[in-house]
Automatic annotation (TrEMBL):
GO molecular function: phosphatidylglycerophosphatase activity
Top-rank taxon: Bacteria
UniProt organism field: Pusillibacter faecalis
Lineage, broadest ranks: Bacteria, Bacillati, Bacillota, Clostridia, Eubacteriales
Protein name: YqeG family HAD IIIA-type phosphatase
Amino acid sequence: MPFSLIPGRLFAHYREVTPEYLKKQEITLLLSDLDFTLAPKSVRSPDAELRAWIAALGAEGISLMIVSNNRSGRRVTEFCADLGVPYQGRAGKPSTRGLEAAMARSGADRAHTAMLGDKLLTDMLAANRCGVLALMVEPLGGAVTPWQKVLHALQAPFKAVCRRRVEKSRGKKPTNG
């Protein structure tokens, strides 16, 4: 299993991860973190923008499953039930077990799966270790606590490497790490 923190692609917001982009990468299953990826952690229910994005994915045959490390499943359960999307709780990222369980439940393979998240040390590392396309977004709601600010600062060099690789390989299929 490769050990890399560098995502295959970096986006400013989940909306930039379009169905067209995913289809070009031959992705049929998009695994996604919830907190700070699709909504700030303080948000209890999905907004219309998120619902529209998920509907657009579904219209193009792309399934979405939330893969969360949350230990208390209440918020994730309610959020996903409200959206009508399945989730894999207690994923244990950066372990690959949550991603592998989600793929098994969906019947998808690694070659057609991507992981969307906002953290290098959990989401991107899990994706790279699992061998799925790692797609990173800037955290929704930004860094609030001192610890989050430290984590964001530590991620900056890896994001810079990703940006350079994307610039170098314009037009080529992204790779991880």
